[in-house]
Design a protein that fits this description.
The protein has about 650 residues and is α+β, with helices and mostly antiparallel strands. About 55% of the residues lie in helices and about 15% in strands. The strands form six sheets. Strands 3, 4, 5, 6 and 7 form a five-stranded antiparallel β-sheet that branches. A hairpin with an 8-residue loop joins strand 1 and strand 2. Helix 1 packs across helix 7, helix 5 packs antiparallel against helix 11 and helix 13 crosses helix 15. The radius of gyration is 34 Å and the shape is flat.
C-alpha cells in the first residue's frame, strides 16, 4: 500500500485548542467588547437618551471600524507571543520535548499542527466577532448602508488577520531558536525593536563623536520599516475625506508585505525546527549557529548602551571617558552572554572573544574620533542642492525676525546657507576671543535635499562668532553677515505674507513702554489703528528703516539705533471645514493663534507717524531705548523720542 507523508494531525490540533481555550477565549472577549457589544451599547443607549441621530452614530461607528487596527496591532503583538509560548511550550522542558517527539508523527506534522493551532487562537475569534458584528449591522442599519458597513468590516478583518499572521509567525520563528520559556518573550520583544535600538545607539555614538551630526533620514526610514509595531501602526491609519465617505488605510501594501513576510517566517521556522536538537531544551539559545551572534550582539549593545549611560550619568562628557566606558561594558556584556549560554559562572577562559569584541569597538571609536568616514567635513555642493530646510538664529533684536525657519529653493540663497555651513566646518575648532561684547553665538539646523533623492542633515548649536571677523571672508561671522543683509531673507524670516494667509488682522499693541518716565508693565493696545500700523510697517520695511538685523547685542550701532519697544500684531486664522474637494469658512470657528512682533527704530518714520496720530505720546507714553548692559540700566536718552525722530 502506498504511504503518504502527513503534515497535519487533527486530533493533536483539537487537543491543543481545547487545552488552551482560556487564551483564545480571552482574545475573543476583548474584540467582542470592542466591536459588536460596543455597537449594541451605542445603539440602545442612544435609543434611551436621544431622540435623533441614533442611526447616524451607529453608521459612523460601523464605517470607522478599520480604525481599530491601531490598537489591534498591540493586541496582536501581545497575544501572539502568548500563543507561541502555549503551543511550543513543550520544546522548553526535556521530558515533554522527548515525549512529544516520541509520538508517531513527523516533525513536519508536529510543527504544522501546532503552528496552525496557535494561529487559530487569533484568527478564529476574530472571524466569530466579525460574524456577530455583521449580524448587528444587518439588524439595525438600513439596507442601503449594508454594503459600505460590511466593506469596512471586511477591511478590518483582513488587515487584522494579516497583522496576526505576521506577529505569530515571528513569535514562532523566535521560539525555534531558544530552549527556555522565559527567553522566548525576551527575544521576541528585543527583536521587534532591535533595529530601532541599534539605530539609536549608533546615532547617539555618532552624535558624541561627529561635530554637527543630526542623524540619517535615509537610515531612519529603513529602521521604521524594520520595526514592525511602528510600521504597521503607521500603515494601518484609517483616513477618510469625511464621516460618510469611503476611506482607506494609509499604506495597505505595507500590511500585505508584512503578511507575506509572516508566511516566509513560517516556512523558515519549519526548516529550523526540522534540524533542532531535542537536547537543546533548557538552553537560552538552542541553535549552535546563532550562539556567536548572540554573544557578540549582547556585547555590542551592552557596550554602547551602558557605556554612554555611564558617561552621561557620571557627567564625563568627553571622549577620554566615553571610550573606556564603552569598552568596559562591552567586556561585561560578553561575559554575561557567555554565562547565559553555558549556564555557569566559570566563563573567564573565553577572554579571547571578549578581547576581539573590545578591539572591534575600539577600532569603531577611533574611526569615529578621526572622522575616517568624512562625516564632519561633508558640505554639499550648492549645484547638487535642490532645496534646503533651514532653521537659523538671525541675531538681534529680539522680535519676530529672530528665528528664520523656511524652505529655500533659490540657488543664490542656497549658496549663502552652504557658505555658512562651510565656514562652520572650517572653523569648528575656533573658540571665543576678545572681550565679551565682541563675541556671540549662532544656531543653524540645515536639512538638504540633494539631486538624486539624497539628504543631508546637520545641527549646529552655539557656534561662536567674533566681531572682528565680520569683514573676513571664510569666517562664520562674515557668512552670517551676508545672510542678515539680504533683505529678501530677512523678509522671509518675518514672514509677513504667511502671517496674514487665511487670516484677518484683529489687533495691534505696543510692548516694552514707559509711562511718565516709569516702566509700563503691560500692553498698550492700538486695535483701532491696526491696519494703518500694518501698512506703515510694510512701508518702513520696504525702505530698510525697520527689521534691520545685527549679530551682536552689545557694542553695535544697529542695536543702539533700535528701540526695545516692539509693535505686535495679532491675527485670527480662518478654520476650513467641509470636504469632498471644496472648503468653506466657518465664522463660528475663529481662533486667534498667531502673533508677530517687530522692533521699532527712530528711522521708521511711517510707523512713528501713525503712532503719533494715536495720541499715546501726548498721554505720557514713550518708547524704551536699547538697554546698555553693564551701563547702569536703561538709558532712555540714548535714542531720540518719536517727536524728534522726524
Amino acid at each position: 500500500m502506498r504511504s503518504a507523508t502527513s503534515y497535519f494531525n487533527g486530533t493533536l490540533y483539537r487537543k491543543t485548542l481545547a487545552r488552551f481555550w482560556p487564551l483564545w477565549a480571552g482574545y475573543g472577549v476583548v474584540w467582542l467588547f470592542c466591536i459588536p457589544l460596543n455597537m449594541l451599547s451605542l445603539y440602545f443607549n442612544n435609543e434611551r437618551y436621544m431622540t435623533t441621530g441614533r442611526m447616524e452614530r451607529l453608521l459612523g461607528r460601523a464605517l470607522n471600524l478599520p480604525e481599530l487596527l491601531s490598537p489591534g496591532v498591540y493586541f496582536a503583538a501581545f497575544f501572539a507571543i502568548l500563543c507561541a509560548m502555549a503551543v511550543f511550550g513543550y520544546l522548553y522542558n526535556s521530558r515533554s520535548a522527548c515525549w512529544t517527539h516520541a509520538l508517531p508523527l513527523r516533525r513536519e506534522a508536529l510543527f504544522t499542527t501546532q503552528y496552525l493551532a496557535g494561529l487559530s487562537f487569533l484568527l478564529l475569534p476574530q472571524g466569530a466577532v466579525a460574524v456577530l458584528t455583521a449580524v448587528v449591522e444587518l439588524s439595525f442599519l438600513p439596507m442601503e448602508h449594508w454594503g459600505a458597513a460590511l466593506s469596512a468590516l471586511m477591511a478590518w478583518l483582513l488587515a487584522q488577520s494579516g497583522v496576526c499572521l505576521f506577529f505569530f509567525s515571528f513569535a514562532a520563528f523566535c521560539a525555534m531558536f531558544t530552549g527556555h520559556i522565559l527567553a522566548l518573550p525576551a527575544f521576541y520583544g528585543i527583536l521587534n525593536v532591535l533595529a530601532g535600538v541599534i539605530y539609536e545607539l549608533l546615532d547617539g555614538l555618532f552624535y558624541e563623536f561627529f561635530f554637527g551630526y543630526a542623524g540619517s533620514s535615509g537610515a531612519f526610514q529603513v529602521v521604521e520599516c524594520l520595526t514592525p509595531v511602528y510600521a504597521l501602526q503607521s500603515a494601518g491609519r484609517w483616513w477618510k475625506e469625511n464621516a460618510w465617505e469611503k476611506g482607506g488605510f494609509q499604506a495597505p501594501a505595507t500590511i500585505a508585505v508584512y503578511a507575506g513576510v509572516g508566511v516566509v517566517l513560517a516556512f523558515a521556522s519549519l526548516c529550523v525546527y526540522r534540524r533542532r536538537h531535542v537536547e537543546a531544551a533548557g538552553d537560552v539559545v538552542a541553535v549552535a549557529l546563532v550562539r556567536p551572534l548572540f554573544k557578540y550582539g549582547v556585547s555590542f549593545c551592552a557596550g554602547l548602551c551602558f557605556g554612554m549611560f555611564t558617561s552621561v550619568f557620571l557627567g564625563w562628557n568627553n571622549m577620554a571617558a566615553l571610550v573606556p566606558c564603552i569598552l568596559a561594558w562591552a567586556v561585561v556584556g560578553y561575559f554575561v552572554a557567555e554565562m547565559l549560554l553555558k549556564k555557569s559562572f566559570r566563563v573567564f577562559k573565553a577572554w579571547k572573544g571578549a578581547a576581539a569584541m573590545t578591539a572591534v569597538l575600539l577600532v569603531l571609536c577611533l574611526a569615529c574620533l578621526l572622522d575616517l568616514f568624512g562625516v564632519e567635513g561633508r558640505v554639499p555642493d550648492p549645484s547638487r542642492v535642490e532645496s534646503v530646510q533651514v532653521y537659523l538664529d538671525m541675531g538681534y533684536p529680539y522680535d519676530g525676525g529672530r528665528e528664520f525657519s523656511t524652505v529655500l529653493t533659490d540657488p543664490e540663497q542656497i549658496k549663502k546657507i552652504v557658505a555658512l555651513h562651510q565656514a562652520i566646518v572650517d572653523n569648528r575648532d575656533s573658540e571665543p576671543r576678545g572681550v565679551d561684547g565682541e563675541n556671540d553665538y549662532i544656531t543653524i539646523y540645515p536639512s538638504y535635499t540633494l539631486s538624486g533623492g539624497g539628504t543631508l542633515n546637520r545641527r549646529y548649536a552655539s557656534i561662536p562668532i567674533h566681531a572682528g571677523d565680520l569683514d573676513t571672508p571664510g569666517t562664520v561671522a562674515y557668512a552670517m553677515k551676508q545672510i542678515i543683509e539680504d533683505r529678501e531673507l530677512v523678509e522671509m524670516a518675518y514672514d509677513f505674507d504667511g502671517f496674514l494667509k487665511d487670516a484677518r488682522l484683529t489687533g495691534a499693541y505696543l510692548w516694552e513702554l514707559y509711562l511718565d518716565g516709569e516702566y509700563f508693565d503691560d500692553y498698550l493696545y492700538l486695535d483701532d489703528y491696526r491696519q494703518e500700523l500694518w501698512d506703515a510697517v510694510q512701508q518702513d520695511f520696504a525702505e530698510g528703516a525697520i527689521g534691520v538685523r545685527c549679530l551682536f547685542e552689545q557694542g553695535s550701532e544697529r542695536m543702539e539705533g533700535t528701540y526695545r519697544t516692539n509693535l505686535c500684531f495679532s491675527v485670527t486664522v480662518y478654520q476650513k471645514t467641509g470636504g469632498s474637494g471644496t472648503s468653506r469658512v466657518s465664522p463660528a470657528g475663529y481662533d486667534v493663534d498667531r502673533t508677530l512682533c517687530i522692533s521699532l527704530t527712530p528711522q521708521a518714520r511711517h510707523t512713528l507717524a501713525v503712532l503719533d496720530q494715536t495720541g499715546i505720546f501726548e498721554e505720557g507714553y514713550s518708547l524704551a531705548a536699547y538697554e546698555r548692559r553693564g551701563g547702569g540700566g536703561i538709558d532712555t536718552t540714548a535714542l531720540p523720542m518719536p517727536e524728534q525722530a522726524g
